[in-house]
């Protein structure tokens, strides 16, 4: 059963679903919107970004990045969440590579992978709506609540940061920048060749005229 806004609010007040900080303005008809958190990193920046202090994080063309959610979640064993990227970012050309489910018993911030598939930079402002979560109530509590490596995580771990900052080779964003620069150089060379082709007959004609005068 998918919970509507009133049921989500009731589950929050009962302690079945914990969202910290909770804001009723983030409630939708049958979901809750999670916001861009404090930490992030991208393959182009290659360092940890304090999004709260900076105000935003930039995903450059072809960039892959990770961000934490502003909210910390805790689900009782009878509840599960289904997450998706907010449509305003999907329409801009961003793809979320995080898993689609928040398991029963999970506690922590979500760590969201994002890829910019467009040829322009996209800004992720701090506390901007990023994900939407549907909450489902199971027929009975699970006997195997989540206990995986992301349990109780509230910030980016060394593995996420190292994956982005210490990867070998060019990131997709750098490949795109290199190809764009190469395209511009080819275009400039083509224009120069066209000018040269136009000037050569004139130079030859002038040279022949000078020879004839002599």
Report on the architecture of this protein.
It contains five helices and twelve strands. It folds into two domains: 5-165, Distorted Sandwich (Deoxyuridine 5'-Triphosphate Nucleotidohydrolase, Chain A); 169-214. The strands form two sheets. Strands 1, 2, 3, 4, 6, 7, 8, 9, 10 and 12 form a ten-stranded antiparallel beta sheet that branches. The model has no long low-confidence stretch (mean pLDDT 85). The protein is an alpha+beta fold and 214 residues long. It has helices at residues 5-14, 51-54, 87-90, 158-165, 172-213, and strands at 17-20, 27-28, 31-42, 48-50, 56-59, 64-75, 79-85, 94-96, 101-102, 107-116, 122-125, 129-137. The longest helix is centred in the C-terminal third of the chain and has 42 residues, at 172-213.
Brief description of this entry?
This protein has helices spanning 5-14, 51-54, 87-90, 158-165, 172-213, and strands spanning 17-20, 27-28, 31-42, 48-50, 56-59, 64-75, 79-85, 94-96, 101-102, 107-116, 122-125, 129-137. By secondary structure, the chain is α+β, with helices and mostly antiparallel strands.
